Write the structure tokens for this entry.
Amino acid sequence: MKVPFVDLKTQYLSIKTEIDAAIQEVLDNTAFIMGPSVKKFEEGFAALHGAKYCIGTSSGTDALHLALWALGIGSGDRVIVPVNTFIATAEAVSLCGADPVFVDCDEYYNIDVQKLREYLIAISHQPSALPKAVIPVHLYGQPADISEIRALAEEYGLYVVEDACQAHCARYQMAPRLNTLEGDPSKIEKKRALQGVTPVQRGKDGEWKSVGSIGDVGTFSFYPGKNLGAYGEAGAVVTNDDKLYQKMKLIHDHGASVRYHHDVAGHNYRMAGFQGAVLSVKLKHIEKWTEKRRENAALYTELLNDVEEVIAPEIKEGRSHSFHLYIARCRRRDELKEYLEKQGIATGLHYPIPLHLQKAYGYLGYKKGDFPVAEGFADEILSLPMYPELTKAQIQYVVERINGFYVGWGSCND
């Protein structure tokens, strides 16, 4: 049996008639940049994630850069980034001329809130050293501890930019507001106002909210392999902040409020009409596809329960995981990966080198051992095939081969 890591062709064939008609409409209207197909998608995606506004962009990386740019992040600023994420999160900071400050991850692979808190307390006596923003990444599709992160951000006057590039349709149950060092919410809001940080809508305790709509701004990627994938590069920003929306809208289209009338120096981060058309079609199916991913993940976890050498991912309470990736921690990971490939099973590594050990960020002065949790995970994590069209038989085959590898290894070592 062959089990690809993703299967974009099977998904396309299941919606081919709709996709072909949508693309033909773009051709007929010759609306190749933005246009009605992008506007339709923006409205639908904003509604899906409980946001007031959505702007389609040219990629997820561009969405992150656009958000930081509009928030005024610039040269000499610092932005907190989880060390366990794809490099685009940190690249967006670098593109603004700012420096990322890395924080280790927790057992759920997301940024460790306690370590974030300890870092902020440690530098709180140095106002000039305080970062201007924090980017919680909802990695692999599981929401980070966004209530706690937002409480800390409010206390220290930080913007919250949600990197939801892997977390379409993921949801988070709002936790009770935590007591902060200042204690009085009105003081915290005043502090944010003085620093130019607009208060965000908190939501009610216990309320389920879509990721991306909880911080100041949320960013998404529609890279073809994502849960909601374009047929090329595309991304989006979502926000409930009127002023921030207007800033981002200007910047993403060369700073023009009216064609050839440029209010600011911006960039070309516009979404192509074809991508808006494709994404609008897929938007009608994304909730069904997401539920299928969750079912597939549940089956993987059930079947892997008896394989002692593998640690399946856990879903933290108060989270709705969208399972862009199914990440397992495996003993003898590299040998297992090679064995599975020989059995016709494609796997991935997300991510084999934490950001602080990447050559691109060597100038920051971090060293091996600075972030032990992420470093340990990097040697163990293996991404198993995950997509809505994955069959029960394929999942059973993958787990059988994993179990067979460890049984054979055990026999060799008896």
Summary: The chain has 14 helices and 15 strands. The CA atoms of residues 313 and 328 lie 6 Å apart. The first strand starts at residue 53 and ends at 57.
